Amino acid sequence: MAAASENQDRVTEKWLEFAQEGKGNMEEMKKLREKDPTFDIDCVDGTGMTALMHASFRGHVPLCEYLIQSGAGVNADTHDSKYTTLMFGALSGNEDVVNMLLDAGANTDAVNSVNRTAAEMAAFIGQESRPKLKVELLKSFHKFISSYNIHPIFLVKQLQQNAELLEDSKQLCRVLDMLVSEKMGAHNTHESLALKLHYISCILKNTAEAKSKDKKGTLDAFLKRLATGRESDGFLDQVESLVRSTLRSYPKAESKLFRMLIAKLSSVEVGSYPYAILALTDAINGERMRSNEDPVCEVCAAREPKKCTACQKAYYCSVQCQKLHRPTHKKYCKSNKA
To answer: Where does the record locate the signal sequence feature (predicted)?
Structure first.
């Protein structure tokens, strides 16, 4: 057993040495893997760095590609100072490495021991790699992120109508995540905009993921799930859950606006007023932008809706929203009739 352990230690040592050589001794690393397919490719050195972290830090594109294809973890959190693989890639200044890690699912919200994200680390050393948007997406993307209505269902409907945004969602999310860091910078702080951009990025990611998992490749099931109310009272608990999940992943916990919002929501039970989407909307747009007197769509909060012809109390902005809400609304529609 002792001999086997010593041999494993030697293999680990060689593996990590090869990862740090010049441009990475990929051929020798492949030989080690061939000799022992069960070898842990995410083994770490004395500082907690994996081979992929070393390769990313040195900007070794082919080696990074090989390690990722071999199953190396892109979100390992073993480093002593909590630096992630993406942070090392950002520090390398190699755009190809960064994009490769992002495509593999690297977490952009993780922070290190000094509370910095990968984007902030890249900006700190002056090697920020700004993602480029396709010209044909600029108009629809700007309209999408400029909307005052940030209700999840409204935004998903917009994405349904602008499928090109979902097709390029990864790149758009990179832009949004980069802007979040910029808007919370020391010399250019805009807390409400940073919070909004993070929220929109999360909605975009969730929507793209839902579409990719849907057997028909549509958003119909996702919208239906969001618009289905709680059995007991019709409350849209899936919307509440989605909004709260976006807040939990916000990487700028130092934001005063964010702290006020969390304090406001933590004092009420889920399903009680103020709902998460209302509190978030007020935090981003200001309470003056929302009138409690003007009716809005029951489903997506769009303005200028029309009354349900049966009960004359519920409002819907479109036939689509009325159909989405029908399973929930029909339970109390007739009983609400004036």
So the answer is: none
Render pLDDT for 191-201 as a digit per residue (tens, 0 to 9).
999 999 999 99
Secondary structure (DSSP) of 178-214:
HHHHHHEETTEE-HHHHHHHHHHHHHHHHHHHHHHHS
Rounded Cα gap, residues 179 and 59, in angstroms: 24
CATH of domain 2-124: 1.25.40.20
Question: DSSP letters along 279-337, please?
Answer: HHHHHHH-GGG--SSS-B-TTT--BS-EE-TTTS--EESSHHHHHHHHHHHTTTTGGG-
The low-confidence residues of the chain, meaning pLDDT below 70, are 1-7, 22-24, 121-132, 135, 186-188, 287-293, 334-338
The H or E element that residue 309 is part of is: none
Query: Among positive and negative, which fits the CA dihedral 312, 159, 246, 280?
Result: negative
Calpha distance 269→265 (Å, rounded): 8
Copy the structure tokens of residue 225.
């799930």
Tell me if 333 sits within 8 A of 310, measured CB to CB.
yes
CA dist 12 and 35 (Å) reads: 13
Return residue ranges of the chain for CATH 1.25.40.20: 2-124
**In 3-state terms, what secondary structure has residue 148?**
coil
292 SS3 class:
coil
Record the pTM.
0.67
Amino acid at position 70, single letter:
S
Strands (E), 7-128: none
Question: pLDDT digits over 278-337, tens only?
Answer: 999 999 988 655 556 688 999 999 988 898 888 888 899 999 999 999 998 887 776 554
Burial of 249 (0-12, 13-18, 19+ CB in 10 A): middle
